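Write out the bound-state structure for NAP.
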Amino acid sequence: MERQRPVALVTGASRGIGRGVALALGGAGYDVVVNYVRDADAAGKVSASLAELGVRGHVSRADISVAADRERLVADVYDTFGRLDLLVNNAGVGPKVRADILEASEESFDHMIGVNLRGPYFLTQLVANRMVVRDRSGVPAPKIVIISSISAYTASANRGDYCVAKAGLAMTAKLFAARLAGHGINVYEIRPGIIETDMTGPVRDRYDDLIHNKGLTPIARWGVPEDVGRAVVAVATDLLPFSTGQVIDVDGGFHLRTL
Ligand code: NAP
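---
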């Protein structure tokens, strides 16, 4: 019997933004592959929450920076569901230490590039190759989302490696958008601003001050994972069919220049 529900793969869906995206997609009727790398408990909880929404949350562990893991992950998606409607490249890490660009290590650079750029770049390649032969799986309009960051264009000299990886990710979205348009596959870059998650926990006080007292963002509040989830649902539910390679800022207006 042919499956009715669309399927999304969300990398790094155990916590933070990925969790918010997975639950928003579940609310929109998607079955979700909940990828994680370390926190199996958190991934299991997301899966349970998806079940409460009446959809399936299939947990799949894979380190997206490792080629063999990426291959196993994609094989698991198609073995389990037989189709993939949406890939959301969300998994990412910040540098272990925020180090001045005059001192930061090559090890940290390689780590940032491996997880935040090479991982999603080649996962997208792998998935794109499956999506272009979708005629057999019956997916009407497959899509790919890349979660980048305001760091794609904002120079933070205390985490240059992260910024360089995110800038590369922005070009990755453009490249795949250009290559895949002829196959009916739209690609979107979603650029979150400052979002309340474990990643921003260590700098909470500083960002609190910048947001609430220093006017950092025209919309003076922290972003929440649900903000990003809603943007992904807009894409997933075909509200932007004539846009591809589009950057969607989910940043409270951070990107505006004001005078
Ligand atoms: P987070 O709370 O630290 O969560 C990171 C998620 O990624 C977790 O689910 C983690 O899995 C997973 N992950 C980490 N390394 C992985 C790997 N090698 N393979 C597979 N999964 C991996 O981070 P977040 O704040 O939600 O950030 C999510 C994405 O948004 C990142 O790409 C980040 O750069 C971007 N972003 C965040 C902000 C922000 O303000 N928070 C702003 C702009 C962009 P485990 O639970 O198993 O560790």
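---
The first helix runs from residue 16 to 27.
The first strand starts at residue 7 and ends at 10.
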